[in-house]
Design goal:
The complex is a heterodimer of chains A (116) and B (148). Chain A has helices spanning 2-23, 28-44, 47-55, 57-60, 64-81, 85-111. Chain A is an all-alpha fold. Classes of the chains: A mainly alpha (116), B mainly alpha (148).
Chain lengths: 116, 148
């Protein structure tokens, strides 16, 4: 069942993003920023956490999950080291994805030739 | 003059290609859903190795980013995005694509200002505003409830 919801919820999030892109005539970059901020806001309100429990990767793989991860990371960090966690938590939690993308990006640009 | 201008606007509106909204939505749903489904499989794999849901989140992201980067390097992901639109862009694989593709494309401008800087053309704004939003939300929550 978790697979069905991952597919449906993830697909619907993408549909929502596509709708905003087409109707509001935004660029993909603008939509991504909008969604990561929305994910952080919903994470702070406790809404996104419930959503993740329900949809699994359908909620964590799309970009709002990235904003949610940052808020969660801050929560953990503040618990452990107080207000300083507000500064360290978001990047600690999202470090895996960011660093992977940087490393793979560097490697790919050295290995692959862009297809024109 | 004024009349001609309105006529021109009318004409250009008529001639502008209509966005195939419904078809775009269907593709976004199918591809976006499929990528998330793949993510669910990867997450389950790590959970079978004995990780909790929380522990599995980070390695799952790394694997998905890796898949996005390899497909981008092979020139496949950009073709996927052409079809799927936000269905390809919104998942974390698309975030990887948004970092890798410009880095590859601007290789000719050098390793520093080409590859190094272009890695963050899209990721930069996403990270900046994501961090800012997470900070503000958490700071408010911390001030109000005492826990962030």
């Amino acid at each position: 069942m978790s697979f069905v919801w991952a597919f449906v919820v993830g697909g619907l999030l993408c549909v929502l993003a596509q709708l905003i892109l087409d109707l509001a005539r935004l660029t993909p970059g603008q939509v991504l920023v909008l969604f990561v901020v929305a994910g952080a806001l919903m994470g702070g309100l406790g809404v996104y956490g419930a959503f993740v429990q329900f949809a699994g990767a359908g909620a964590t793989v799309p970009l709002p999950g990235f904003g949610y991860t940052m808020v969660e990371g801050i929560g953990e960090a503040v618990k452990q080291k107080g207000p300083m966690g507000l500064f360290t938590g978001s990047l600690t939690a999202s470090a895996g994805g960011i660093k992977a993308a940087v490393l793979f990006g560097l490697a790919a640009s050295l290995i692959f030739k862009p297809k024109a | 003059m004024g009349l001609q201008q309105t006529r021109y606007q009318q004409l250009s509106k008529e001639k502008m290609p209509k966005r195939p909204v419904l078809r775009n939505l269907l593709w976004a749903f199918m591809i976006g859903g499929a990528i998330c489904l793949a993510g669910q499989f990867v997450q389950l794999f790590f959970m079978h190795q004995g990780m909790s849901v929380k522990e599995a989140a980070s390695p799952t992201t790394v694997v998905m980013v890796g898949i996005g980067a390899v497909l981008t390097g092979a020139g496949l992901y950009d073709r996927l995005v052409k079809r799927a639109g936000m269905g390809g862009t919104l998942p974390i694989t698309g975030f990887a694509n948004a970092m890798v593709a410009p880095a590859m494309e601007f290789r000719a401008e050098g390793l520093i200002m080409g590859v190094g800087a272009r890695l963050f053309t899209v990721a930069g704004p996403v990270l900046a505003y994501g961090m800012a939003a997470a900070f503000v939300v958490s700071a408010v929550r911390y001030l109000v409830t005492g826990v962030a």
